[in-house]
Specification:
The complex is a heterodimer of chains A (267) and B (258). By secondary structure, chain A is mostly helical. In chain A, 80% of the residues lie in helices and 0% in strands. The radius of gyration of chain A is 23 Å and the shape is flat. Chain B has 258 residues and is of the alpha/beta class. Helices cover 36% and strands 24% of the residues of chain B. Chain B has 8 helices and 10 strands. In chain B, helix 7 (196-202) packs across helix 8 (236-257). The longest helix of chain B is centred in the C-terminal third of the chain and has 22 residues, at 236-257. Chain B starts with a strand and ends with a helix. Classes of the chains: A mainly alpha (267), B alpha/beta (258). Chains A and B meet through helix 8 and helix 9 of A and strand 6, helix 3 and helix 5 of B.
Chain lengths: 267, 258
C-alpha cells in the first residue's frame, strides 16, 4: 500500500488506475468548458470577442441549414486530400529509397533538407504567381508542405529497419530484389502509416494558411470571412470543424493500422 | 572430411577517420562434415565478423573461405544463420517465417507445409503456427529462427550467440533443444559464443580466440560422450575442460580490457 496518493500517482512512468485517468481527463475538459461558460455568460468578455457555447452551436445549425458548412468543408477536404495523396505517392517510395540506398540519399537528401526548412507560407506569393489562386494553389501548397517532411520521416523509418533482418534474408537465399520487395518494404509499413497520420495533421495547417491568403471557399476562407464580419461564433465553428475532422482522420488512420497491420507493435 | 575451411583469413575495417582496424588476423580453421564447431572468445575479438565472413555478408581483406571446396563469394542458402538479435519477420506468422526460404526458393505449397510442420514440431512450437512474432517470448522467437534456418536444409548452420539475449534458464533449455536437434539432423554447425559452459556443452571442438586482432589461440577437443545433457556441467571432466579454457580466455579478456 503506497503511503500517499501523491506517491502513488506522481511517480514517473508508473501506471495509474483507469478510473483515475478518466476522471482527470474529464475534469480538465469540463473545467475548460465551464471556464468558457463563465467568461461568456458572465459577461466578463465582450460577446463579439467570445461567443457562448450555445451561439457556436446555433452557428453550426445555421451552417448546416444554408449549406455553407458542407460546401466549405467539402472544398477543404478535397484540396487537402489531393495535395496529401499526390505527396504521399511520391514521398513513400522515394523516402524508402533514400533511407536504404546511400546513392538515393546522396541524390535526394541535401535538396530535401534545404527545402524542408523553407516555410511553405513563404512560397505562397510565388505559387500564386505560377499557378493562380484556384484550387491548384492550395493543392500545391499542401503538396510542397507535406512532401519534404514525409520524405525525411519515411527515410528515417526505412533507415531504422534492422540490417540483421535484411542479412538473415540473404542467408535464406533471397536476392537483392527479393530483400527489397519482401523484407524492406513490409518492414517499413507501420512506420509509413504513422508518418502519413502525423503529416496529414500538419497538412491542415498549410491548407488554412493557403486559404487565408486567397480563396473563395473552404474552411480557412470561412474563418477569415467570419472575422471580417466579426462573427466570432462562426470563427469558433470553423475551428471546431477543423479540429473534429483532424480527430476523425487520426482515428481512421489508427483503425487502418490495426486492420491492415495487426502484426505491428505499437509505434 | 573437411566441410568448411578458412584459409589465412584477414579482415580489416577502414573507418572514415583514423587508422584501419585489424579485426581478424590470419585465421585458419577447418570444420569437418557433421562437426559441431564452437568459437569462443572475449567480446570484441571479431568472432561475429568471422561468422559474417562465412555467411558471405562481409568480404575478407585477404584469404579464402571454402565450403565443400567452393569459394564463398556471397550469401546463400547453403549457409543458414541464426542471429543473436531477434530477426523474425514481424509481418509473417510462425509458419510463414519458417517457410520464408522455401517460398522464395519456389518450393510448392504442399511440400513447404510438410517441411514447416516437421521443423515447427522439432522446436516444440506446434499450436503456434499462426502466432505472430510479437506474441512470442524471446526463447520462442529463437526457436522459430532455428526452425527457419533448418527448413532451408543448409550445408552449414551458422549460429551467432543465438541464446545470448535469453535468461539463463531459457538458455539451458535452448541448449538441450539444440543438442537434440543436432543429434537428429547431424548438420555441420559453426557456433559463436562467449559463454564457456555453452561452448563445452555443445561443441566437438572449441576454438579459443584472442582479443583484437582476433586470431585462433588454441583448439580444444571436447571428447565428452554424446548424447549430452545439461547435468554434464558439474562432472569432473567438464570442469577440467572449463578450467583450461577459462585460463586461455582470461588472459585475453584482461588484454582486451587494457
Amino acid at each position: 500500500m503506497p503511503r500517499s496518493y501523491f506517491e502513488a500517482y506522481a511517480a514517473p512512468k508508473k501506471e495509474i488506475p483507469r478510473s483515475v485517468y478518466l476522471t482527470v481527463s474529464a475534469t480538465v475538459a469540463i473545467s475548460i468548458l465551464l471556464m468558457w461558460c463563465v467568461l461568456s455568460y458572465g459577461g466578463f468578455v465582450r460577446s463579439d470577442f467570445l461567443p457562448t457555447p450555445v451561439e457556436v452551436l446555433y452557428a453550426g445549425l445555421d451552417g448546416i441549414q444554408d449549406g455553407s458548412l458542407a460546401v466549405n468543408t467539402a472544398a477543404s477536404v478535397g484540396e487537402i486530400m489531393s495535395g496529401f495523396i499526390i505527396a504521399s505517392i511520391l514521398a513513400v517510395p522515394l523516402g524508402i529509397l533514400m533511407g536504404s540506398f546511400k546513392i538515393a540519399e546522396a541524390a535526394i537528401e541535401p535538396v530535401t533538407n534545404f527545402i524542408r526548412y523553407l516555410p511553405v507560407s513563404a512560397l505562397i506569393p510565388l505559387l500564386i504567381l505560377w499557378v493562380g489562386i484556384g484550387i491548384e494553389e492550395k493543392v500545391t501548397v499542401i503538396f510542397i508542405g507535406t512532401l519534404f517532411q514525409q520524405l525525411i520521416l519515411v527515410a528515417d523509418v526505412s533507415r531504422n529497419v534492422p540490417s540483421d533482418l535484411l542479412d538473415v534474408s540473404y542467408t535464406l537465399g533471397a536476392n537483392r530484389r527479393t530483400v527489397v520487395t519482401r523484407v524492406l518494404i513490409p518492414a517499413t509499413l507501420p512506420g509509413v502509416v504513422d508518418t502519413l497520420r502525423v503529416t496529414l495533421g500538419w497538412a491542415w495547417t498549410y491548407l488554412v494558411i493557403a486559404e487565408f491568403v486567397a480563396a473563395n471557399k473552404g474552411l480557412g476562407y470561412f474563418i477569415l470571412n467570419s472575422e471580417r464580419g466579426l462573427f466570432t461564433d462562426r470563427i469558433f465553428l470553423g475551428i471546431a470543424v477543423i479540429g473534429l475532422l483532424g480527430l476523425i482522420t487520426d482515428q481512421l488512420f489508427k483503425l487502418l493500422r490495426d486492420w491492415l497491420l495487426p502484426w505491428a507493435t505499437e509505434g | 572430411m573437411t566441410k568448411l575451411k578458412l584459409d589465412k583469413v584477414t579482415l580489416e575495417f577502414f573507418p572514415r577517420t583514423g587508422a584501419p582496424v585489424l579485426a581478424l588476423d590470419d585465421v585458419s580453421l577447418e570444420v569437418a562434415e557433421q562437426e559441431f564447431a564452437v568459437i569462443v572468445g572475449p567480446s570484441g575479438c571479431g568472432k561475429s565478423s568471422l561468422l559474417r565472413l562465412v555467411a558471405g555478408l562481409v568480404e575478407p581483406t585477404r584469404g579464402e573461405i571454402t565450403l565443400d571446396g567452393t569459394p564463398v563469394t556471397r550469401p546463400g542458402k547453403d549457409r543458414g544463420m541464426v542471429f543473436q538479435s531477434y530477426t523474425l519477420f514481424p509481418w509473417l506468422n510462425v509458419r510463414d517465417n519458417v517457410e520464408f526460404g522455401l517460398r522464395i526458393g519456389g518450393v510448392p505449397a504442399e511440400k513447404r507445409k510438410h517441411i514447416s510442420d516437421h521443423f515447427i514440431k522439432e522446436v516444440g512450437l506446434e499450436g503456434f503456427e499462426s502466432a505472430y512474432p510479437k506474441q512470442l517470448s524471446g526463447g520462442m522467437m529463437q526457436r522459430v529462427a532455428l526452425a527457419r534456418a533448418l527448413a532451408n536444409d543448409p550445408e552449414v548452420l551458422l549460429m551467432d550467440e543465438p541464446f545470448g539475449a535469453l535468461d539463463s534458464q531459457t538458455r539451458s533449455l535452448m541448449q538441450e533443444l539444440l543438442l537434440q536437434i543436432w543429434e537428429h539432423s547431424q548438420k555441420t554447425v559453426l557456433f559463436i559464443t562467449h559463454d564457456i559452459d555453452e561452448a563445452i556443452l555443445l561443441g566437438d571442438r572449441v576454438h579459443v580466440m584472442t582479443a583484437r586482432p582476433g586470431r585462433i589461440k588454441e583448439r580444444v577437443e571436447i571428447d565428452l560422450k554424446r548424447p549430452r545433457h545439461v547435468d554434464l556441467l558439474t562432472s569432473p571432466e567438464f570442469i577440467a575442460l572449463k578450467r583450461r579454457i577459462m585460463g586461455l580466455i582470461h588472459d585475453e579478456a584482461v588484454r582486451a580490457m587494457r
